[in-house]
Specification:
The chain is mainly α. The protein is 78% helix and 0% strand.
């Protein structure tokens, strides 16, 4: 009984860290899916909406900032529609989930990092003549790397 109470106290004191670690595992699963299939399975993607209540309960961001973070993702749904899915709907839905989980300023930081990583990757691939201008590559791995990098440096 003593060990159970210690474990429960540990979980309560570190609930945000635990939520972030589980979310990182979720992101890795989505990254593998995106790399292998260039498509995200809808059921797995939508399971991420379960993290939104965790962000409200476990995180320290105000619910208004969490809603604003989700709104950033909604803007990306518009981008997906305008670009005829050059930026995929799955990526946009994931940004809604991430923004609602992390908050407005955190999702902006994460997106900045992810887009910089993707731009560096694209530049290297173009220089090596592996891709042409119209070719595509999965974006979820860059979101995952930016998220896990943010965890490592303590940004989230």
């Amino acid at each position: 009984m003593f060990r159970l109470s210690n474990a429960m106290r540990f979980a309560a004191e570190n609930r945000w860290t635990i939520c972030c670690a589980v979310f990182a595992a979720y992101m890795i699963i989505l990254s593998i899916m995106d790399i292998r299939n260039r498509k995200l399975k809808l059921s797995v993607l939508l399971a991420g909406f379960l993290f939104i209540p965790a962000g409200i309960v476990c995180g320290n961001a105000h619910p208004v900032f969490l809603a604003a973070g989700g709104a950033v993702g909604v803007a990306f749904v518009g981008v997906s529609k305008v670009t005829e899915e050059a930026f995929g709907y799955g990526d946009s839905i994931l940004i809604i989930i991430m923004g609602s989980f992390l908050g407005f300023w955190e999702i902006l930081s994460l997106l900045t990092g992810a887009f910089l990583l993707a731009a560096a990757f694209a530049l290297v691939i173009l220089i090596r003549n592996r891709f042409r201008r119209k070719d595509t590559f999965p974006f979820v791995p860059f979101l995952s790397i930016a998220y896990i990098g943010g965890l490592v440096i303590g940004a989230f």
